[in-house]
Task: structure prediction
Amino acid sequence: MRKKQIPLIALFVILTLVLILVVVLGIRRSQIPADTEALSGREEEAVQEKWQEGTVSHNGRYYKYNNNLRTYLLMGIDKEGPAAEAEDCISGGQSDAMFLVVADSETENISVISINRNTMTKIETLDPSGTKKGEITAQICVQHGYGDGRHYSCSRTVDAVSRLFYNLPVSGYLSLNMDAMPILNDAAGGVEITVLQDIDDPERGVYLREGERRTLNGTEAYSYMRRRDINIFDSATDRLRRQEQYISEFMKKLKTAVAGNTSRAAEIYDSVSEYLVTDVDFANLISELITYEFDGNIYTVPGETVMGDVYEEYYVDDEALYDLIIQVFYKEDRT
Result:
């Protein structure tokens, strides 16, 4: 049975406002390493590895990079209030939610890949004045903190994600301070979900119980998307599952709210524009991608969470990531 599709008029608002944005921009033609053996020492070699023309061999078949793709990074930033310049270059805020959005201009379909905030990778550090201090291996969410909290922080995070994906070209970025979530939720009229796990947030008066069917108001949506118990192992992964669930349900709800009403979509965007930082040209989106579809499925960068010396650490399964990249970014070469 064909999966139900969500037209981009609804997706537009969600992607721009809830970390899933797509805009047609040009990117260079490129590819990942040509064989599975290149996965060993991935992080050390990623900086030197260049995407090249040609084919890759995988599991006895040949593939070519899909040059019809455009890839964008969406980030949810753990900072209160509107997006503002950080007081120093180590206070830019962490990117607690991270998604890659892949738009295919040939099929007019959207793919979404979620990235665990605790993914261990190389990040570039600064001191408070902005002087470069070199690379360290740390959770990828930390990269956004080393910068100005706006465009510089975003561009550095784009670089870190690109390296993680073998120097994948990223066409643009959008970050959203998470305080915008209650505004978005209420603008859509609330979002109905089946609660995946108990959420207790006494500070906001939010108490949700696993298994209950609930239409979330703005405050509840904020707690559902943000709350986690750092004393519980792998709580970041549990929260990521809630974020994925909420985004999918929000898409369905917003489809109804803005169907056939582009002015309503613009109103919702304007209501949270001060919480956004982006280098994307929004004017092209509706005119060029109005017919694009998204099936509601979200891929996850594969890996495993372990307990580090202080914080949880998520280590990518290189072979499984290679499979995912082939699946999303490549087409089989039958010539």
Q: What stands out?
A: The chain has two domains: 55-177+277-333, 178-259. Confidence is low (pLDDT under 50) at residues 1-14, 16-52. The first strand starts at residue 6 and ends at 7. The domain at 178-259 is CATH 3.40.630.190 (Aminopeptidase).
